[in-house]
């Protein structure tokens, strides 16, 4: 992109954009009185389809190279500006990742697909994060703007008593959990799951 165009995105974007004759800007939706809309449509195609695919592949490669690291800082920023070609990049990248089931959603048990994780805000209390990590629950803690986009995808699941209970049911043992983590998880589950269903989970200290 043109050096004067500051996108606020965490990565540099290089491509064969249609640019103005003086190379100072790319053709975009803000232009008025333009007879030939093909330059705008080309750039729109790049930002709506080509770049989201490339970005999803980038995140997949990085997640594979650094499997124990959180890379959400490299995801598209929260820019919702219809006057900018890159204003829809975050929803487009999330949709691309979701549709292709790319395992790039970081959790304490590794990177997972959106369907295999439980969505929660990154502002979740520390004691709960610690309990989920000890229990090896694949919780995806993300900023609220990413959380909103992820929740719109088919197959996404929120972290709530029922989905947490279902994850715990599939685990062979919970003997490794500390007393504090057991109490934290029980506090969450008791809000919705009947006490009679919790007996088999080995959660009671």
Report on this model:
There is one protein chain. With 205 residues, the protein is mainly α. The chain contains 7 helices and 4 strands. It has helices at residues 38-65, 89-99, 126-135, 144-151, 161-169, 179-189, 195-198, and strands spanning 105-107, 110-112, 118-121, 139-142. The strands form 2 sheets. It has a two-stranded antiparallel ribbon. It has a two-stranded parallel sheet with strand order 3-4. α1 crosses α2 and α3 packs across α6. The mean pLDDT is 87.
List the defining traits of the structure above:
205 residues, mainly alpha, two-stranded parallel ribbon, 7% strand
Furnish the topology, listing elements before pairings.
Blueprint (H helix, E strand, L loop, with lengths): L37 H28 L23 H11 L5 E3 L2 E3 L5 E4 L4 H10 L3 E4 L1 H8 L9 H9 L9 H11 L5 H4 L7
Parallel strand pairs: 3-4
Antiparallel strand pairs: 1-2
